[in-house]
Backbone:
């Protein structure tokens, strides 16, 4: 069996132009100068000895660090290789269908590998958006022989055996229901062997969010979020909450301007295990229900015996991207929680800061949001869900800050709103619609697609969907089949 060998890279020697060139001039020889030269020579010898010892210690420390780093990398690589071998042996016939290449992702509940689909031509490939473009990738025939089709890659998601069986079944069912949806990663198939489950998904070429988000123009942002909201509109039309919208779960390729929404491990159907919440009542009814809870004199302390009933709600998601109703334990969460998360991504791109929110727990997350919106608006948001928000942090203002001011400050452009372009003002207006504290006033994914901001750059998307012509160097990491 053939094994691909990594190509070696030759490192050309070069001359360092910064190396100084010194000319030594002999001074006139006298007795005084000879004595001075001997004294200086002794001092120079001592200095050179000290310098050599210092350099030797520094080199030893550097070699030790490099050795430890290389050992860690080797151990990690060996562990990945072992896991890939173990996965291939866990399923009968796996090696005849797929050839693992490398690990491309690792999370709390699963690990994702890139693999070559060896049996692509034997099955229905309606999931493959680029299947009609493979003809132009064919290798010209040699001596009358047939051309070779470009290899097709898939993403194999290995779900950990510690995951709940209900969670695994829920994710697979939701992916099956969302097949054919625009910009949503479809499920090709799934396998189970004893307690191990793997899902086969399409592999999408994409770039690291941190490598391109600072270079995005306003039209680039519009194209990015139009693709993301197209996916969300399809998901929400099926009454499904994704619950984990973040840059790493939206695989985007800037060259083709195409993105796809992935990872439905935390997704759930809207209304599942929910109970009525005050946020869905009309203002008069909500005020009447809140009146007994609001006391004129609030003691700034915790009661020894708290008689308030406990509240349980789904708070799943990634810190920094969870909506305020999730933090306030709303018992009737809607698809609007995903829209808030998209707003955080837009704020991240406009401010050129990632991550924008970096809280360690729910309390810090509330304080971060309150820093932007102010203590007064945060208190009103808490009352929507029957909660109280109180803080004695002196730096937390009552009114907060505007999005315009935050973006101007974060990009070092002064305080004047005149420094913002008309396109930026349109993007900030759209941002305020996404990051609305009241979920009932927050824009929906369907409404977002009609917003003027997402219509920017429509005339520049003629090349969307074209496969990238960049070469694939992943074959260097090919695992022996």
Residues:
């Amino acid at each position: 069996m053939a094994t691909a060998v990594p190509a070696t890279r030759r490192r050309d020697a070069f001359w360092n132009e910064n190396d100084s060139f010194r000319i030594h001039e002999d001074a006139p020889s006298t007795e005084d100068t000879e004595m001075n030269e001997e004294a200086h020579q002794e001092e120079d010898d001592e200095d050179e000895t000290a310098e050599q010892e210092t350099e030797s210690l520094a080199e030893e420390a550097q070699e030790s660090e490099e050795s430890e780093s290389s050992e860690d990398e080797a151990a990690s690589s060996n562990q990945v290789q072992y896991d890939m071998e173990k996965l291939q042996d866990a399923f009968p016939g796996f090696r005849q269908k797929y050839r693992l290449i490398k690990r491309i992702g690792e999370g709390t509940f699963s690990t994702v590998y890139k693999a070559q689909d060896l049996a692509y031509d034997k099955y229905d490939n309606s999931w493959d958006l680029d299947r009609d473009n493979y003809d132009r990738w064919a290798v010209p025939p040699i001596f009358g022989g047939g051309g070779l089709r470009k290899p097709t890659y898939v993403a194999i998601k290995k779900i950990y055996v510690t995951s709940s069986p209900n969670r695994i079944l829920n994710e697979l069912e939701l992916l099956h229901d969302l097949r054919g949806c625009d910009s949503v990663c479809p499920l090709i198939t799934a396998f189970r062997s004893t307690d191990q489950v793997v899902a086969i998904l399409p592999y999408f070429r994409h770039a690291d969010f941190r490598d391109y988000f600072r270079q995005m123009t306003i039209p680039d942002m519009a194209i990015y979020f139009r693709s993301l909201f197209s996916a969300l509109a399809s998901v929400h039309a099926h009454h499904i909450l994704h619950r984990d919208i973040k840059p790493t779960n939206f695989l985007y390729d800037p060259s083709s301007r195409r993105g796809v929404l992935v990872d439905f491990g935390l997704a759930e159907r809207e209304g599942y295990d929910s109970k009525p919440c005050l946020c869905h009542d009309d203002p008069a009814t909500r005020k009447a229900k809140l009146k007994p809870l609001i006391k004129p004199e609030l003691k700034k302390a915790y009661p020894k015996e708290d008689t308030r009933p406990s509240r349980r709600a789904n708070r799943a998601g990634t810190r920094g991207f969870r909506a305020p109703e999730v933090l306030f334990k709303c018992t009737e969460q809607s698809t609007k929680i995903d829209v808030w998360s998209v707003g955080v991504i837009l704020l991240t791109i406009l401010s050129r800061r990632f991550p924008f929110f970096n809280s360690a727990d729910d309390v810090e997350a509330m304080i971060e949001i309150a820093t932007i919106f102010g203590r007064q608006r945060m208190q009103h948001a808490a009352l929507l869900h029957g909660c109280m928000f109180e803080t004695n942090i002196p730096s937390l203002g009552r009114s907060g800050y505007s999005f315009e001011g935050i973006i101007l400050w974060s990009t070092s452009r002064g305080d004047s709103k005149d420094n913002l372009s008309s396109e930026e003002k349109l993007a900030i207006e759209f941002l305020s619609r996404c990051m609305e504290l009241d979920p009932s006033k927050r824009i929906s994914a369907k409404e977002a697609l009609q917003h003027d901001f997402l219509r920017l750059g429509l005339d520049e998307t003629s090349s969307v969907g074209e496969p990238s012509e960049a070469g694939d160097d992943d074959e260097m990491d090919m695992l022996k089949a």
Observations:
- Strands lie at 98-106, 110-117, 153-159, 189-193, 196-202, 240-241, 250-253, 258-261, 268-269.
